[in-house]
Design goal:
Blueprint: H1 2-15, H2 37-51, H3 55-67, H4 98-112, H5 123-137, H6 171-179, H7 185-192, E1 199-201, H8 207-210, H9 224-233, E2 243-245, H10 257-263, H11 270-277, H12 279-290, H13 292-306
Antiparallel strand pairs: 1-2
């Protein structure tokens, strides 16, 4: 009986240790079943980027939105049905660019066209590989991707509410949300640098330009010059389709210019600029603004940790035949 009690104790501990979830993830997961998977995905990603540059931020944002809701299980890719409104149709996900979804679908088709790979690679892993590739192909670091995730069985718009960071968040709110996924402040600052790529609609930050507070209509942490430029590009009754680059200096390059922008008061969101104005995170911003190598190492570490969030295994997932629909 003693042995049984020990076994039960070990099992109960493992249920409550999320880091053990990543135990089945490994970089050579498909070495025997689909050894060419990373080459296939990279070729699709490269081709897609040549067609349209928005693929880069689209894929990166899709991965982040996937992992923060239900874990990294491709639940964000599921299409809604008459009986279920899926994650992608929650208001917070409506701005996810179609090119991110399209990249995963095309990569899945290319993988399944290889007889030895057909129905062997999960959509969740395809998204993880594609994310690494868009980062590298836009000037960022290449890093080994842990693989072995299964695709999830649940995708509900109602699960998105309150689980994605808002552009108005302060440091405590950011830290709290990231900590709930096992990510610390350093990880949070590193992952925020994904805003070195992509663009935002004006309504996500217009409060900083026109009605920040009764005393200061314009957010005083914004550079005066930058605020004036933004007001020109985003007048009060702006077309809601207009988008502004998150990084006005090198919008299509993955680099540490994001942090240099924060030093100049050129963070587009409150949640960006607060990383510099709050003294608890300012030191990290200053370091990474001047040291690209140290930033990139921290980013790779944070992306690896993000990729372990809520991973499905065993009976909790499967490999979808169609990334947009449950089997």
């Amino acid at each position: 009986m003693g042995g049984l009690h020990i076994l039960i104790a070990v099992l109960s501990i493992s249920i409550f240790l999320p880091e053990l979830v990543s135990a089945q993830l490994r970089t050579n997961y498909y070495a025997k079943t689909c050894p060419s998977v990373e080459t296939i995905v990279r070729n699709v990603v490269n081709q897609k980027i040549q067609q349209i540059i928005i693929t880069v931020p689209a894929v990166l944002r899709l991965f982040f939105h996937d992992c923060f809701v239900e874990g990294c299980d491709a639940s964000v890719i599921i299409t809604s049905t008459p009986g279920n409104t899926a994650e992608k149709d929650h208001p917070d996900n409506l701005s996810l660019a179609g090119d991110g979804f399209d990249t995963v679908v095309k990569a899945k088709a290319a993988i399944d066209a290889n007889p030895s790979c057909k129905n062997r690679v999960s959509c969740a892993d395809i998204l993880a590989i594609a994310t690494r590739d868009v980062i590298e192909l836009s000037g960022g670091p290449r890093y080994p991707v842990e693989l072995g995730r299964l695709d999830g069985f649940t995708s509900k718009a109602s699960n998105v509410e309150g689980n994605l960071p808002k552009p108005t968040f302060n440091l405590d709110q950011l830290n709290s949300m990231f900590a709930s996924h096992g990510l610390d402040q350093t990880d949070m600052i590193a992952l925020s640098a994904a805003h070195t790529l992509g663009a935002s609609h004006c309504n996500k930050f217009s409060n900083r330009l026109y009605n920040f507070s009764p005393k200061n209509p314009v957010d005083p942490t914004l550079s005066k010059t930058f605020a004036a430029q933004l007001q020109q590009m985003c007048p009060k009754n702006v077309d809601p389709q207009i988008v502004i680059n998150l990084d006005p200096i090198t919008p299509n390059t993955f680099d540490n210019v994001y942090f240099q922008n924060l030093q100049k008061g050129m963070g587009l969101f409150t949640s960006d600029q607060v990383l510099f104005t709050d003294k608890r995170s300012k030191g990290t911003v200053d370091l990474w603004a001047s040291n690209s190598k140290v930033f990139q190492a921290a980013f790779v570490n944070a992306m690896t940790k993000l990729g372990r969030v809520g991973v499905k295994s065993g009976k909790n997932g499967n490999i979808r035949r169609d990334c947009g629909a449950f089997n």
